[in-house]
Amino acid sequence: MKQVLSFLMIIAAFVAHGQKATVYGTISDEEGSPLELVNVSIMGLPGGASTNANGTYEFSVPAEKEIEIIASFIGFGHSQKRIKLKEGERKELNFVLAQEMQTLPNVVIEDKQIRHSTLERIDPKDVRVIPSVSGSVESMIKTMPGVSANNELSSQYSVRGGNFDENLVYVNDIEIYRPFLVSSGQQEGLSFLNPDLVSSISFSAGGFDAKYGDKMSSVLDITYKRPTGFAASVDLSLLGGNGHIQGISKNKKFTYLLGVRQKSNQYILKGLETKGEYKPVFTDVQGILSYQITNKWNISFLGNYSRNKYRFVPTVRETDFGTITEAYRLTIYFDGQEVDSYVNGMGAITATYQPHEDLKLKFIASAYNSVESETYDLQGQYWIGLLDNDLGADEGEFDEVVQTIGVGTFLEHARNYLNTTVASLQHRGTSVLEGHTISWGANFQHEYIDDQLSEWDLIDSAGYSLPRPSDSIGYINPLVQPFHPLEMDISVKGNNTLQSNRFTAFVQDSWDIFTNKNSHMALTFGVRAHYWDYNSEFLVSPRATLSYKPAWERDVVLRFSSGIYYQPPFYRELRDLYGNVNPDIEAQRSIHFVAGSDWNFLAWNRPFKFITEVYYKKLDNLIPYKVDNVRIRYYADNIAHGYSTGIDFKVMGEFVKGVDSWMTLSLLKTAEDIEGDFYTDENGNVVEAGYIPRPTDQRVNVSIFFQDYLPKNPTWKMQLNLLFGTGLPFGPTKSERYEDTLRVSPYRRVDIGFSKMVKGSNTIMNRRFFNTFDEIWITAEVLNLLQISNTISYLWVSDVSGYQWAVPNYLTPRQLNVKLIMTF
């Protein structure tokens, strides 16, 4: 398949480049030194070249027509010349480039449309270079202010105290769903978002507009490319490969955008402490076909097929834990295997009618289906031993087990199957009037869910089943002997089928209250409505954002957003810890208050932006939950209320001339009060637990994304991704929520990548094959550079006395990844 794709790309590239006349020359800086890898291109047309080490270039251009030749280079101003050549003519064009910067006004113009909202724009180009295990759009989202994540194997993230299920994701106005049965990052595979197909990324951590749906935390709004010409790319790495192709027909009416991804985490998972045979295979195919029927009508189809398979046959695990003065070792020998499957398909047809530039109407029909299975039978025989930590111990005895603390066996079984179908019909419209942009929409959605759930755990410690049944010693006659069934440590069973319909609608107005030379005020106000026939609940959500740019010498925009954000339950919130569905559950509610500022400024004569947001979220009708790895288990009852409050900072800009970097700092506190969570103290008094930290109470988060290059040779680049987050609350598996008072160790991770451009844009090379490619990059990534053992969750093992040991489940160690990126 890859060979065929590459062949088609090569043929298309040769067809697209005609040779009628030739331009050549030398490009230097103001001191006369030649510049290597300067891009020389034709304005508005394909074709061009990059200079070699001597600063020279040569390439073919169209003859008998006026064209504009542009020379550009990182850290230098561009230069352009207009020419018209005859067929076969050779023309020498020499350029001298001056060192200069992108001025701040350009940045302001680019950001003006979203600067007065809570949305933040992210450059899709940064997604392709950020060093990470997944290489996904979500890897970049994790570096945004207010976002926290503690698992590099997962694309999930929490925002300002919310959980993974509270985040909206849209692609071309279509809401995206993720698999429901995934319980660990190893199983997750590929996220829906394909970075090769993305043209714009907007993200809001709260206070977003009414046009976005009914979730309590955040919205990620993605727009896929609309091709204007032929292009393609191929990426290969130790973790898999992906490729894409895009183009447009000769009459400019038909466009296509297709992407294929294949991923295997086998190389990464082999570094985990649990050894065995890992066989993950993740495949994703998606694309958009668009046809311009008339000047006013366009029709497009967005399709996706994803197949994620995960098979694991564990053999042994050895984990050291404890402290320097009291160190232990857990050893487990396994039998059995785990086999998981997640097959998803999505299709959407969009008809767009635009009678004039001030009115756009969209009609969208979409369907999503997911067939998931999670099956495993695992037996583990474990030993807990005390380690010899005496530095003066005899050779061969230090760091060895000197005393057995506990032994036992556990059995884990699951046969979980889930079939989910979501179909919707929606209309969206936008009308631009004088000073107003009015948007509206309506949606009908049908949901069908078939869930078969059966999982249990059995613990046998030193020959005793835990929980231990009552003794029946002394009973001689089995007919009168009391019956004591074998009790499972954990048992969850359910067989549920659900069909329901939802109706939603919104209307909002973005009003430019006034605009003059030095100041600007804007108001966006909207209302959402939601009705779900499963519980007959009708919800109304008003939302508003007021922004003001004062006539100050500094370029500052002030914002305040507020609104009601309901989250009607989907199936996961309906199912309790034991597999039962609660039909009387209601929507959770979050009231947002967000105040922020956006300041554009110059430092070192380069553009920068400083963003600050202070927020408070009042949470009502909450459904408490527990988190294990990436699995969320809900109590399926509205029995809590709480709050989230904090402040986010972000500074971004050209710390190195010509490339963007940023740093973020987020401070958070989130807590909830669960009704009826009380305990009896040692004196027999009943004590209410009161407010307790929510499972996502990560108090401090810091992220850094930094880019650099060699000043004299910018073909060598470096990207660094740093994440830090303080520990999350946790407790024993079967504990009450108020007992989750322990904290996971902080999440600390640094990934770094080094890239070399071996071929610049349209550089002419001696070997003709390489001239097919626009650019060729080779990247080496060091993942988890500092070799920090981060903890994602804990394995709880018990001895016969019932004492529980929390053994950390560590994430991936330091590993190397190599990538080859080729663009056509």
Description of the structure:
It is built from 7 helices and 47 strands. With 824 residues, it is mostly beta strands. A hairpin with a 4-residue loop joins strand 20 (297-322) and strand 21 (327-356). The chain starts with a helix and ends with a strand.
Poorly predicted spans: 1-18, 101-111
Radius of gyration: 30 Å
Strand coverage percent = over 45%
Total helical elements? 7
First-to-last CA distance:
17 Å
Mean pLDDT, to the nearest integer, reads 86
Largest sheet: 22 strands, antiparallel, barrel
- Please give the number of β-strands: 47
Brief account:
By secondary structure, the chain is mainly beta. Helices cover 6% and strands 59% of the residues.
Please give the structural blueprint.
Blueprint: H1 2-16, E1 21-29, E2 39-42, E3 45-50, E4 56-61, E5 66-73, E6 76-84, E7 90-92, E8 95-97, H2 104-115, E9 120-122, H3 124-129, H4 137-141, E10 147-148, E11 158-159, E12 167-171, E13 174-175, H5 185-188, E14 198-204, E15 218-224, E16 231-237, E17 240-248, E18 254-263, H6 266-269, E19 274-292, E20 297-322, E21 327-356, E22 359-387, E23 401-433, E24 436-461, E25 464-466, E26 490-515, E27 520-532, E28 537-549, E29 555-567, H7 571-574, E30 588-603, E31 606-622, E32 625-628, E33 631-634, E34 640-656, E35 659-674, E36 678-680, E37 686-688, E38 691-693, E39 700-710, E40 713-725, E41 729-730, E42 742-743, E43 747-759, E44 775-783, E45 791-798, E46 804-810, E47 815-823
Parallel strand pairs: 1-7, 1-8, 12-15
Antiparallel strand pairs: 1-4, 2-3, 2-5, 5-6, 9-14, 10-11, 12-13, 14-15, 16-17, 16-47, 17-18, 18-19, 19-20, 20-21, 21-22, 22-23, 23-24, 24-25, 24-26, 26-27, 27-28, 28-29, 29-30, 30-31, 31-34, 32-33, 34-35, 35-38, 35-39, 36-37, 39-40, 40-43, 41-42, 43-44, 44-47, 45-46
